[in-house]
Specification:
Elements (H helix, E strand, L loop, with lengths): L1 E5 L7 E4 L4 E4 L3 E5 L2 E4 L12 H4 L8 E4 H5 L3 E3 L3 H21 L4 H20 L5 E4 L10 E5 L6 E6 L3 E5 L1
Antiparallel strand pairs: 1-2, 1-11, 3-4, 4-10, 5-6, 7-8, 8-9, 9-10
Helix pairs in contact: 3-4
Length: 171
C-alpha cells in the first residue's frame, strides 16, 4: 500500500492512500470517492430482557456518520472565502513549482504543470461554493488544502488533491 503525504510541509501529513480508487484529473490532481461510515456504535447484549416500557429508554449509542477519508487521515476542516482561497492557491502553486524545480524536474515539465494547474484551478474556482476545505492533521498553513465535493448524484462525496504536492511512502 502507498500512503500519500504532503510534500511541502515538515509535518508530512498523511492525506490519502492508494487503497482508495484514485482517478487522475487533467494531469495535475487525483480524485478519490469517499463513503460515509458509522463510527462509535457499540452494541452490548447483556442477555437481559428489557420490558416493553424500558426498551425505548435506552441511551444514545454515540454512533456518528463520518467521511471515511476525512476521518481516516484526521483531516481538519478549514474555511475560505473566494478571495482568500485564490490568494492561498497562488502561493501554493508557486511553492509547488519550486518544489518540482528543487526535485530536478525539467523546465518543460514545470511549465506543463503550471499550465495544467492553472486550467484545473479555474474549474475549482468556478464551482467554489460546492467545496469544503480540509488541511492535514498538523494544520500547517504551508500545506495542501484537500477539497471535498459531491458527485452529480449529490450523494457520493469525493476528495481532490494536487498530484504534484504528494510524496509516496510504501508501507
Amino acid at each position: 500500500m502507498i500512503i500519500f503525504k504532503d510534500a511541502l510541509t515538515d509535518s508530512k501529513d498523511e492525506l490519502l492512500s492508494d487503497s482508495y480508487d484514485l482517478k487522475e484529473i487533467d494531469g495535475v490532481a487525483y480524485e478519490a470517492d469517499c463513503a460515509m461510515i458509522e463510527i462509535g456504535a457499540v452494541s452490548v447484549d447483556t442477555g437481559a430482557n428489557a420490558s416493553a416500557e424500558e426498551a425505548d429508554e435506552g441511551l444514545d449509542d454515540g454512533a456518528q456518520k463520518v467521511n471515511n477519508i476525512i476521518h481516516s487521515f484526521r483531516l481538519q476542516p478549514t474555511s475560505f472565502d473566494k478571495a482568500s482561497y485564490l490568494s492561498y492557491l497562488k502561493s501554493y502553486m508557486k511553492k509547488l513549482a519550486q518544489h518540482l524545480k528543487d526535485k530536478g524536474a525539467p523546465a518543460e515539465e514545470v511549465a506543463d504543470f503550471q499550465k495544467k494547474a492553472q486550467g484545473f484551478a479555474k474549474k475549482i474556482v468556478g464551482k467554489f461554493k460546492d467545496y469544503e476545505f480540509y488541511t492535514g492533521e498538523s494544520m500547517d498553513v504551508d500545506g495542501m488544502v484537500v477539497l471535498l465535493n459531491y458527485r452529480d448524484d449529490g450523494v457520493t462525496p469525493f476528495v481532490t488533491v494536487w498530484k504534484h504536492g504528494l510524496e509516496e511512502m510504501k508501507v
